[in-house]
């Protein structure tokens, strides 16, 4: 009647901790990032954390309910993705940008603007230019120069 | 939760928060970004190592190794999803999070869900790629990819949440080692799967009758002989007997979301002037 169970409470707490980390990092991404697409991905990551916790709980209690909840979460995630991407499309069509702070003017009238645009421009990280061939290390010729045809290789092709 | 666990959890959260704050796209004074990112990466990996010490290794060696691989991949992927400048890289790291989560599902005995997650999220990630290619300014040079909204406060809030979650979860472990209440010490009733055993062994009480009524054989992973049921068969049985209404509601939800997405995304027809 009582099968030996290898899924102990310690393993359950492991699963719950990984799920909690995914949830907290997803929340951080949703709060801090300004790109609508990255915010959408962060929400999906929070759902993944919850699903992980539910599957762990279901396995620990020996019940299917955790996995069934996760199937429901998958469905809700699909619905959320469709509606969110439709919203992203129309928001982009209105302002030609994925920046979520451009939509501050639809807030409640009594709430102050969280950060004016001018101040945020100062906060932005400077663009790191990708360096071209001029940044490659210069190699000095060493050793005896071997005998080779003086014709350049591009001319040697034809 | 022991004092050592609490100190370790605080270490994890402080190191992780400092590293994440440095890694988030933001102007950090006059320091060159590359150096700040290096320092942030080192701090965050130290926090991750401390987080690894909080887990207790599960029994068999193979399961332990795979559990650590998948959990580390999930956590690192989550960090990099949140902190990548380029949304394409965010989507790629999110794909790694999904794959690692499916691996953890497999380890927890949910192969159907592992396959389902991979299939559903593969589609979702490909669509996200299309959107990034269609809409985003490439190479992470857009202003909104180089700046964060209130990074300090956001990091504080989410890592405070993480600390309290870790605290609650570790408390769970301590409670269990205390053992079940003395009255039912012989038949511990900590899990749902213990109920049938207690039901057969103990004289019928009101509490047990309520528990047994709430518990049905179809919702149990094990059959009457104590063997594990086949995954898809058992899951389908539970889904279409105990949770039939849920299936119907999910169908309605999908339909409503479909209608909503079409209604939102379709361009409005402009009013034509009359003839």
Shape of chain B: globular
Largest protein interface, residues of each chain: A-B, 90 and 108 residues
- Unreliable residue stretches of chain A: none
Helical residue percent of chain A? 55-70%
Which stretches of chain B are low in confidence, meaning pLDDT under 50 for 5 or more residues running?
A: 179-185
Which class do the helix and strand fractions of chain A yield? mainly alpha
From the alpha carbons, calculate the radius of gyration of chain A and give it in angstroms. Answer: 28 Å
How many β-strand runs of chain B? 0
What is the distance, rounded to the nearest whole angstrom, between the alpha carbons of the first and last residues of chain A?
83 Å
Quick one: biggest sheet of chain A? none
Number of helices of chain B: 11
Order of helices and strands of chain B: HHHHHHHHHHH
Shape of chain A: extended
Offer a quick outline of the entry.
The complex is a heterodimer of chains A (158) and B (275). Chain A has 158 residues and is mainly alpha-helical. Chain A has helices at residues 9-32, 36-61, 65-95, 117-123, 153-156.
Structure overview:
Chain A has 158 residues and is mostly helical. In chain A, 58% of the residues lie in helices and 0% in strands. Chain A has helices spanning 9-32, 36-61, 65-95, 117-123, 153-156. In chain A, helix 1 (9-32) packs antiparallel against helix 2 (36-61) and helix 2 (36-61) packs antiparallel against helix 3. The N and C termini of chain A lie far apart (83 Å). Chain B is mainly alpha-helical and 275 residues long. The radius of gyration of chain B is 25 Å and the shape is globular. Chain B starts with a helix and ends in a 10-residue tail after the last helix. The model of chain B is unreliable at 179-185 (pLDDT under 50). Chains A and B meet through helix 1, helix 2, helix 3 and helix 4 of A and helix 2, helix 3, helix 4, helix 5 and helix 6 of B.
